[in-house]
Every structure is written in C-alpha cells, then in structure tokens.
Amino acid sequence: MNIFVLLKRTFDTEEKIAINNGRIEDDGAEYIINPYDEYAVEEAINIRDEHGGEVTVVTIGDEDAEKQLRTALAMGADQAVLINTEDDLEEGDQFTTVKILEAFFDDREADIILAGNVAIDEASGQVGPRLAERLNMSCVTTITSITIDGDTANIERDVEGDVEKVETSLPLLVTCQQGLNEPRYPSLPGIMKAKKKPLEELEIDDLDLEEDDVEPKTKTIEIFLPPEKQAGKVLEGEMDDQVKELVSLLKTEAKVL
Amino acid sequence: MSSVKHFVQGGDFLIEEITAESVFTPEDCTDEHRMIAGTARQFISREIHPYMKRLEEGDFPFVAEKMKKAGELGLLGHSVPEKYGGLGLDKMSKGIVGEALGNASGYSVAHSNHTCIATLPITYFGTKQQKEKYLPKLASGEYLGAYCLTEPEAGSDALAAQTTAVLNESETHYILNGTKIYITNASFADTFIVYAKVDSRHFTAFIVEKDFPGLSIGPEESKMGIKGSSTCSVSMEDCEVPIENVIGEIGKGHLIALNVLNLGRFNLGFATLGAAKYSFQLALEHSTERKQFKKSISEFGATKEKVAQMAARLYATESLLYRTAGHVESALGEHEDSSDFKAVAKAMNEHALESAICKIVGSETLDYVVDEALQLHGGAGFIKEYPVEMAYRDSRINRIFEGTNEINRLLIPGAFFKKVAKDFLDTRTIVERAQHSLHNGVFKKQTGELSELKQALALFKDLHLVCAGLAFFKYGTSVKNEQETLMKLADLAIAIYSTESVILRTEKASERNHKQKLAYTYVEQTALEVQHAVIPMLSELLVGEERTKTLGQVSLLLAAYHWPDSVERKRKIADFYSEQKRYQS
Ligand SMILES: Cc1cc2nc3c(=O)[nH]c(=O)nc-3n(C[C@H](O)[C@H](O)[C@H](O)COP(=O)(O)OP(=O)(O)OC[C@H]3O[C@@H](n4cnc5c(N)ncnc54)[C@H](O)[C@@H]3O)c2cc1C
Ligand SMILES: Cc1cc2nc3c(=O)[nH]c(=O)nc-3n(C[C@H](O)[C@H](O)[C@H](O)COP(=O)(O)OP(=O)(O)OC[C@H]3O[C@@H](n4cnc5c(N)ncnc54)[C@H](O)[C@@H]3O)c2cc1C
User: What angle do CA A62, A67, A71 make, to 5 degrees?
Assistant: First the structure.
C-alpha cells in the first residue's frame, strides 16, 4: 500500500510565543511536528505494519523542516520528501499548499493520504479536504479510528463530541483527530536508522510549477497575541441579585449581549 | 556520532592553556543527540512521572518493568556495542541520556546503575563469550544488573573486601563466600558483578547470576530518599561461579572496579544535572506563582540573586560535563571492543580526575539548587504534597555513593601529583613561573574576548600551581597524608576546570549574550571560593612576613574579579528565568 502523510512543522504553542513587527519571533521559538500530524504518522505506520507497503512523509517548508521529517523517519516512516520553498516563495496560504501538493501527487499513486485535522499554528483545517477535492479522492475528516479491509475503510469520526461511523473506499484522504492513537516517540535505534533513510528534496520547478501558479489567494493583515487573561470576578449576594448583576455586566462590560 | 578531534590528556588543564576547539560543548550536540534527549525525556514524562507515588512506595517490580520498557526504546543499550545488541553510541549520548533520565528519583538510580557499573565491566573487560552471552540481554532489559563492591568493612576502602573466592577441586568453579551491602537493584537483578579475593589475596571480578547456588538477597533497606531503587545486601555462601565467569584477569579486579567507577561518576554528574534542572524549574514555577506582600516571590531581590546563582552553577556544571564527555570519548571511543585489557584500563583512567570533578560538581550543584528550591517554597517545601520535598531527600545520596565526595576530592591532587611525576615535569620551574606570574601580573596578559574572565582563570591556575608546589616542597611525598591541604587543592582544581569550561563554551557559542552574563556571575562566585581555599592553605604553607604579605596580595588580586554591574546583571538573569520558567542557556 502506498501511504502518504502530510506533515507540517509548527512552533510549539505550549511554549512562549513572541511577536515582533507583525511576525512570530523565530528566535527562541520551539518547533515541533504539528501534533495532529503526529497522529497521522503513527496511524500510517500502523497501517503499513498491518497491510504492508511504504510510508512517505511529505512536508512543504524550508531546510529546518528536515528535523521534523527525520523525527517521523525515526518513528518508523520509510521515506520523506521536503518540498523546499525557501528560495521561491515569500508567502503562502492554504491555496499555495494545496496547489503544490496537487502537483506532487500528480504522478504518484496514493492509496491513502493521512493529514492532521488542523495545524495548530494557523488552524484552518482546509488543506486535507481541499487536496482531496483536487485529487478527486474520498475524504473523511477528524477520524478517531480506521480499519482497512481490501479497498474498504471503516472509519469513526468525531463530530463535535459525537461519533459518526463511515464506510468508504480507497483511495482515500483522512484527517486525524486526537484520540485516534497515542503517537510513539522514536526509539534510539529508530533515531540512528533515520539517518540512513531516504529524504528527497524538491523545489517547485521540479513539480513544473511557477511562482505565479502558487501565489496565495489571501493576505495576512495583522498578527497579534490574544489579550492577557484578566483576573476573574466572583459575584456575591443572593442568587437573584447575582443573576441580575451578571446579566448587566455581560451587557455593559463584556458587551456580549 | 561526532568526532572529537583534539585529544586532551587528563589533568592537562591544570598545567596548560586549553583552547576552545578542543572542548565539546552542549551547543555542539548533533540533531541525533537532541532527538535522543527528546526520547529519554518523553520516556520519563510518560512512563515514570505519572507514577512517582509507586516509586516512593518502593514498588520494585514496577521499576523493573519500566526498565524493560526503556530497553525496548534502546535506552539501556546506548553504550553497548552494536555487535552485541546495543547501539554503540558516543559518550555524549551516554551523558545526554543520563541527564534526561536524571529527574526521576529512584528510577534514575536504578536505570543508571544498570547501564553503567552493572554493564560496563562486561562491555570493556569481558571475554567474547561473556559479551555474547550477557550484553544483548543487558542491552534489551531481559537481564537487569547489579554491581557488588561495598562490604560492611569495605566502603570507601573498597579494596579491603573480605569476600573470598577459592577454586574448587575439579577447577570448574570458584566458590565465593562473603556479604556485600547496599547493593542497588539487588531485589530484581539477574546478574551481579561481584568482587572477591581469590585465595584471600587477588582482587577479582566475577559475573554471578541470580540462580547460581549459594547466592541470596537480604531484606530491603529503609532509606531516606531514592526509595524507588532497591537496596539490599547480597550474600554468597559457598556460591558456585563457573571459571568462565571471571572478568578480566585474576588479581586485576581493582582496575575494573575503579575504572568502571570513573564512567559511573561521569554519568552521575549528568544524572544530577538533570535532577538539578528539574529542581530549578520547580523553584521557578513556585516563586512566580506564589504571592506575598502583594508581589510574586520571584520579584524580590533576594530571590533574584538566588535564581541567578543557581542558573550560573547549572551553566557551569553543564559546561564541564559536556566538555568531559568530549574528552572521555576521545580517549575511549576506539576501545569499545578491544581485548587489550591494559590499554582499555589506561584509556578509562585517563580522565579519572575530570570524572571525579563531574561527580563532585554535579552532586553539590544538585544539593545547592534543591536546597534553595525548597527554601523558595517556604513551608510548602516541607510538605510531601510538593515534589520539591521528595527531590530534596533524593538528592542527598549523590554525595555519598560512587565514592564519597571526600574520596573523590582526594583523588584529584593525587592524580595531579602523579601526572607531574609521570610527565617528568620540573616542579620547581612550574612553580617559579606561576610565582613570577603572580608577582608581575603575567596572568593579566589576556587578550580578545572574555579577557577579564580569562585573567581570572589564569590567576586561579597560578594560585593552584603555587599552592601545590609549596605543599610539595613542605611535605614531600607525604603530602598525600595532608588531607586538609589536599581537599583545598581539589577545590582549586574544581574551580579551574569549571571556570575554564564556562569560558571556553561561552567563547565558542554563537549566541553569547545571556551566556556571558552567566559566565561573569559564575566567575565572581568562584573567585570567592578560590579565596576560601587559597587563604587557609597559604596561611599554613608560608611563615612570617612572607605569609602576611602574600595573604594580603592574594586577597587583593582575587577581589578584582567582581564587577560593578553584579546586582543588575543577576536581576536580568533572574528575570529571564522567571519568564522562561525552566533552565536554558
Ligand atoms: C542507596 C545506596 C546505594 C548504594 N549502591 C551501591 C551499589 O550498587 N554497589 C556498591 O558496591 N555499593 C553501593 N553503595 C555503597 C556506597 O558506595 C558506599 O556507601 C560509599 O562508597 C561509602 O562507603 P561507606 O558507606 O562504607 O562509608 P565510609 O567509608 O565508612 O565513610 C564514612 C565517612 O568517612 C569518610 N572517609 C572514609 N575514608 C576516608 C579517608 N580515607 N579520608 C577521609 N575521609 C574518609 C567518607 O568520606 C565518609 O564521609 C550504595 C550506598 C547507598 C547508601
Ligand atoms: C511543619 C510546619 C509547622 C508550622 N507551624 C506553624 C504554626 O504552628 N503556626 C503558624 O502560624 N504557622 C506555622 N507554620 C507556617 C510557617 O511559619 C510558614 O510556613 C513560614 O512563615 C513561611 O511562610 P510560607 O510558607 O507562606 O512561605 P512564603 O512566605 O510563601 O515564602 C516563600 C519564600 O519566599 C521568601 N519570601 C517571602 N517574602 C519575602 C520578601 N518580602 N522578600 C524576600 N523573600 C521573601 C521566603 O523567605 C521563602 O523563601 C508551620 C509550617 C510548617 C512547614
């Protein structure tokens, strides 16, 4: 089976993030594999171990993303592809990503593509479904379980806390939700083996794309941090008075009513 | 994994200038090193930290099970050669794993004990058959190991062991009799490295399996800390050990025991660094959360000074440990699968002095940091609900085992005097040169970046040579009995090694701003410690007017290594960490 994983390098949102001149400060930020993509890597490895085949992890980014690819290889993926856009692209959006991936998959046979449900940095949740559409593949988002039997896939997906069961067929693109699995961390032998696994580097002209083809369709106007959390307020007095006060505060202070 | 080009001999730093190119620094770690650290940290945070209560309750089967799990991840086999089922990684990786696993109380001790002293005797001194038989299982965790050196009458004086080994009549087995005490991992170990004297004379190492007839394990000791590590006595009553289980040569057991301890001490330094960083983090978390007098505890100047000093010591400890990893790797890297007993022993002993420093500085930094961390918790630090209470109790053992810090200190000037004798260095010339430097300020002739710090280092080195020389002239070879002086010479050597490691690392680093603040803070603190060691020593070694004059001059020279921005700098350092909420440099 040809198994592909779409992987994004993101900064670690658990760490402190600083913004400078409308950009996220690179210095000091910690970078990780987008956590939802980690579920995808884990599931891909499990599918391969059960059904055979190869796991290829693909990322679009710059040279630094090699680290996250190596981590995926150390977890057990067989090969990795870095589509390096450092020299060609200043900006990109989901359109750019999907366009590049579409070209990448143009001459590749994918039985299943696994992506994260969202990337925690921009959280659009668009790349998976849009790519499936372009590749004319079935698509199931936010999956929490998958079993494959021949060409049939039985999937459970998370719908706002409820479970929906879906039966579909390969080729297929799924996006992975928390609860799908517990991603392994690389073993030491895995880490040493990863050094020797193939990591192919492509640029957009290797995919017969020009810069204009992948020009973003959106523009980022401003980036800002959420406001600092303010101290809470505990209401006192009789229940009725508290309710009244709450309603009035929601109207006058919070201005949400 | 990474090669260390420049070979630096043990103790060289006390006599020569060492350059930045010849030291390994944390910043030199490869991506693989970082991934290895990540895996080890994840293992602890997923597999051990959620179960600290079980460790504290002494659930040893649980510990053994987790060690096997660590084995599956390769965390037991990093130092076992590939051909025997391990990974054959470099000494930096060994240190990195030791550090990452160091913040897990008794688990850390159990794990390190297994990978270091319980496995290394076979790795470095075993026969091919022994390696084939035991190493793959020790690397995977199928077998867990213990190391049995200490006896009721032989603790620090380990070679005074009374356990005996006698060849049986059919010459197939040695019959061992004796008792070992305080043996880590004893309750679940499959293999025991046991030291015994053949015919009551020839100190020898044996591999004893748990099922060999005559071996029995005593009850668990009730301990102050590291309660998750099993500690029992191990008794041998006519215990039958096949002759092929002798490690190395009959009568050469001391070379195995002591040299393996060198690596054990090196590793213990890393483990205690990991624990110290964890305690530091607890201090930062608590002091930024807790408010008194309408302010966070972290906002008080007294706290800031503590935080800055803790950080500077962590930085120094880290610098000297990674540096030592580089030195040890350069000496030992090739000997992984050698059968030349003497060459291996020599290579392992090359950095005995530096390894002793790793152990002392690591354990004392941890004790210092965990004590301040607890103090910053106020009353909460004394209550078991807070993890710093456990960390405090766990810390204390590190100054005792793998050779007490006193025994390790004694080793340092001992190794130095031996080196001087062995290299046929002319003591008088060296000392005179140092004296000349002190009198004429030659040590101040440092140029380039960090030159102020380099001056301090050169001064410390001169002072060490002068004191060592004066001691040698006064006491001759019986200087080895002058422990009061030896301890202080050791402190000086430690100050030099740590200061030099800090300076060279800072010099080599590309991002230098914060590191430089730590370096200045460390040197300031160390100048006081050097004074603490040198003044009483010179007071003892000199007489009359020369004594009075020298004491005054030395104090004056050392006072130059305090800078006017000290308070401001430390506040900045502390604010950085209160923001980061963990150690980083
Ligand atoms: C929890 C725990 C786990 C251990 N695990 C192991 C293990 O797995 N394997 C093993 O073999 N051992 C182990 N030990 C033993 C440990 O290595 C010894 O306790 C240690 O070496 C000190 O020996 P001792 O206890 O006999 O103290 P002593 O030697 O009696 O020392 C008492 C004091 O005297 C000082 N002293 C001793 N000699 C001198 C001297 N010549 N000059 C100046 N001062 C001196 C010491 O520094 C110390 O302060 C363990 C101990 C503990 C507590
Ligand atoms: C076993 C035990 C028994 C006790 N018994 C009693 C009792 O019988 N009765 C009773 O009333 N209390 C009792 N206490 C409470 C004890 O007196 C307090 O724990 C102690 O005064 C410290 O206060 P704290 O714990 O709130 O620490 P904090 O005040 O939170 O202090 C935390 C840290 O901040 C430092 N710090 C605080 N303020 C400043 C400042 N302005 N400048 C610089 N540094 C600062 C402190 O020195 C400390 O290092 C007991 C506590 C314990 C643990």
Answer: 135
Query: How many beta-carbon pairs below 8 A join chains A and B?
Result: 41
Nearest 5°: phi and psi at B336?
-55, -40
Amino acid at B187: S
| Mean pLDDT score, B261-273 | 97
**According to DSSP H, which parts of B236-291 are helical?**
253-289
Contact A191 B579 (CB under 8 A): no
**What is the percentage of chain B residues whose pLDDT exceeds 70?**
99
Q: Which residue CA neighbors atom 10 of ligand 2 most closely?
A: B379
* Interchain proximity B87–A185, CB inside 8 Å: no
C-alpha torsion angle, residues B72, B76, B82, B84 (rounded to 10): -90
Tokens of B413: 């000037």
Output the six-digit token pair for A242: 């508290």
pLDDT average, residue stretch B128-132: 97
Express each pLDDT in A39-65 by its tens digit.
999 999 999 999 999 999 999 999 999
All residues of chain B having their beta carbon less than 8 Å from the beta carbon of residue A189 are 74, 87
Nearest by CB: A186 against B35, B46, B78 = B35
CATH 3.40.50.300 for the A2-214 domain, yes or no: no
Closest CA to A66 of A92, A93, A89, A86: A86
Question: Closest ligand to B292 CA?
Answer: 2
Catalytic, B507? Answer: no
pLDDT at B202: 98
Across B407-421, average pLDDT: 95
Structural domains of chain B, with CATH: 12-144 (1.10.540.10), 147-247 (2.40.110.10), 254-312+355-405 (1.20.140.10), 409-580 (1.20.140.10)
Q: Is B339 helix (H, G, I), strand (E, B) or coil?
A: coil
Sequence letter at residue B90: D
CA atoms of B52 and B63, how far apart (whole Å): 11
Of chain B, the percentage scoring pLDDT greater than 90 comes to: 92
Distance B129 CA to ligand 2 centre (A): 61
d(CA B244, CA B167): 12
Residue recorded with tokens 């990195």 = B96
**b/e B100-112 (16+ beta carbons within 10 angstroms → b):** bbbbbbbbbbbbb
Ranges assigned E (strand) in B123-163: 145-148
Tell me how close the Cα of A65 comes to any Cα of chain B, in angstroms. 12
Q: Identify the three-state secondary structure at position A106.
A: helix
Q: Are strands B173-184 and B231-242 parallel, antiparallel or unpaired?
A: antiparallel
**Closest CB to B31 among A67, A185, A190:** A67
Spatial contact of B487 and B406, defined as CB atoms under 8 Å apart: yes
What does the pLDDT read at residue A87? 86
Point out the catalytic residue in the list B318, B402, B507, B524.
Answer: B402
Alpha helices in A138-182 (DSSP H): none
Q: Where are the domains of chain A?
A: 2-214, 228-257
